[in-house]
Amino acid sequence: TVADLPGRCGMQLEQRDKELAAIGASIGCNCRPCIEYHIPAGREAGLSEADLADAVATARAVRDEAIELLAPRIDELLGGGSVPSESASAAGTSRPHLLVSLGASFGANSHPLLQRQIAAALEFGLSTTEVAAATKMARFVQNHAGEVTAEKAKHALEQLGTRAGDASPRS
């Protein structure tokens, strides 16, 4: 429910900053309903169209970097033994970029990238409370994305199972 949103429970960030982290997490975890909610919520929180476009570009870059960081391990598990590629820092040096990058690296489940983004945020001057609040918002978005996806899968299975004439699992 809306009352359960992290923005309503006293986190130590302004609403616009919470929405920056949420936009990052939404894109990081590829959650369409989340991004459809958080971009308008970002506007309502005072983010301009340029702020939103910049947040989306930053989140995409961080998500793509998370994929690049994971690719060598996947190749290794498949027997390819590839060499890790150079990663470009997508965080930038602004507070909005750092908040979006925290959300996106959290949403993308990239532990090495998240650690780097946390270090960059702290080095930039964000407090541990602010970083914790941004990751709390990202965790909320990621959890909600999983719930929404599970519900969509349930409905699709019910619809397609009925359409196929087989609503029960086969043994």
Give the topology.
Layout: H1 15-28, H2 32-44, H3 49-77, H4 95-107, H5 111-124, H6 128-163
Task: Count helical runs.
Answer: 6
Percentage of β-strand residues: under 5%
Question: N- to C-terminal separation?
Answer: 38 Å
Low-confidence stretches: none
- What overall geometry do the principal axes of the alpha carbons give? globular
- Number of DSSP E strands: 0
Q: What is the averaged pLDDT score?
A: 84
Note the run of SSEs as H and E: HHHHHH
| Helical amount | 55-70%
Characterize the largest beta sheet: strand count, sense, and whether it forms a barrel.
none
Key descriptive features of the protein:
globular; 70% helix
Q: What is the structure about, briefly put?
A:
The protein is an all-alpha fold and 171 residues long.
Please give a structural write-up.
By secondary structure, this protein is mostly helical. α3 (49-77) packs parallel to α4. The chain is built from six helices and no strands.
